[in-house]
Design a protein that fits this description.
Order of helices and strands: EHEHEHEHHEHEHEHHHEEHEHEHHEHHH
Helix content: 25-40%
Number of helices: 17
CATH topology of the largest domain: Rossmann fold
Strand order of the largest sheet: 3-2-1-4-5-6
Number of strands: 12
CATH class of the largest domain: Alpha Beta
Number of domains: 2
Radius of gyration: 21 Å
CATH architecture of the largest domain: 3-Layer(aba) Sandwich
């Protein structure tokens, strides 16, 4: 009797095909055809659904079939544990406790969305969202996950992110990527009352600071004189309010996430400006510079607490708090004033364990060990 294929179920949020789950699915399909791969996606997002269908067998998010495949899958692989399953995670914990033999056979692997550099124990602790394998990307992150989330060392392999394989060796263009993280007070929590939310959002410091930058005349002149384009790409949580932002500069684009994938932007951009987003690690992995614009550091640290990652000591570029200093640092980088603009490549070399396109292979091998 022929043995059936192993079933591996891959998922993110259900609303797009970017990120580590889809990158790893493509690796497994291309290199291990003996494994049946299914990607979870939501038909409410037709572009994502069609893109997923072209790459793999798919299943509708939270459908009956999704539930059946979740129970049947040998490996459940997600980049957003707790947000991509067919039930709330509390029910999955109860299932694993009630049926330990099932839990032993059906392993859950968290690929992660990015690199953890903040305290997320209130979301991802082993008590709240337990998994069998929790992928990490740097030795420091691995230790932090073990310390703050409660995992044993063998449960946290340091492999690098799956999506980084596609970033390796990318050739940048004359593009600057402005990509801030969301704040708790600007997250889209009230979609049914967008008018009220829009008013609240436009009163926040977050909105004012970035809108001021988008209409800054010195920045516009500098982009023109040095032949660069700046792309403002708000966080997923802020994207529904993207029409609040505006600019008069032809060299500044305010980009909706439906127009271009983040992975494509990361590969094409030569400089990143962010505040606290862990996507800066993607740039560090590519050995490209980052400027950290942290005008509200006190508020952000009060929300997340301390971290092993110190931006001044460990960051992939300078830290600034004022708009004028940010524009000055952009100028230093644009004009290649090497005597003024520090090379942060040695920091990258010390932070990352690997710099290659073998992250998916390492993840695959570690999954086989559990």
């Amino acid at each position: 009797m022929m043995k059936s294929k192993e079933l591996w179920l891959f998922s993110k949020h259900g609303n797009d095909v970017g990120d580590n789950a889809f990158a790893f699915l493509k690796y497994v399909k291309n290199n291990h055809p003996e494994i049946r791969c299914v990607f979870v996606v939501d038909k409410k997002y037709p572009e994502a659904y069609e893109a997923a269908k072209q790459a793999s067998e798919v299943v509708q998010f939270r459908s009956l079939k999704h539930k059946l495949l979740f129970l049947k899958a040998d490996k459940i692989i997600t980049s957003h544990v707790g947000d991509s399953e067919p039930w709330d995670y509390e029910k999955i914990i109860k299932l694993r406790e009630k049926y330990p033999k099932w839990a032993k056979k059906h392993k859950i692997i968290h690929l992660q969305h990015g690199v953890i550099d903040k305290n997320v124990s209130h979301i991802y602790s082993k008590k709240l969202r337990p998994v069998d394998l929790f992928i990490s990307s740097t030795p420091a992150e691995k230790k932090y996950i073990e310390k703050t989330l409660g995992y044993e060392s063998e449960q946290v392999p340091c492999t690098g992110l799956a999506r980084w394989d596609e970033l390796y060796g990318a050739k940048p263009e004359r593009i600057i990527l402005l990509i801030p993280r969301y704040r708790a007070d600007v997250m889209v929590q009230l979609p049914e009352n967008k008018k009220k939310l829009k008013y609240h959002f436009m009163c926040t410091q977050f909105y004012r600071k970035y809108q001021e930058l988008l209409v800054d005349k010195d920045l516009a002149k500098m982009l023109e004189e040095n032949d660069y384009k700046l792309i403002f790409y708000p966080h997923y949580e802020v994207q529904p309010l993207i029409d609040c932002f505006h600019t008069n500069c032809e060299r500044i684009q305010i980009l909706d996430r439906s127009n271009k994938s983040l992975d494509e932007l990361l590969k094409k951009s030569a400089l990143m400006i962010t505040d606290y987003s862990s996507v800066a690690f993607d740039f560090g992995y590519m050995r490209k510079p980052v400027i950290y614009y942290q005008f509200d550091r006190d508020m952000f640290e009060a929300e997340y607490g301390g971290s092993y990652f110190d931006y001044e000591r460990d960051g992939f570029g300078p830290v600034v708090v004022k708009k004028d200093d940010l524009i000055l640092d952009i100028y230093k980088w644009m004009t290649k004033k090497s005597e003024e603009y520090k090379d942060f490549t040695p920091r990258c070399e010390s932070i990352f364990k690997y710099n290659d396109n073998e992250n998916c292979r390492r993840i695959y091998e570690d999954i086989l060990e559990i």
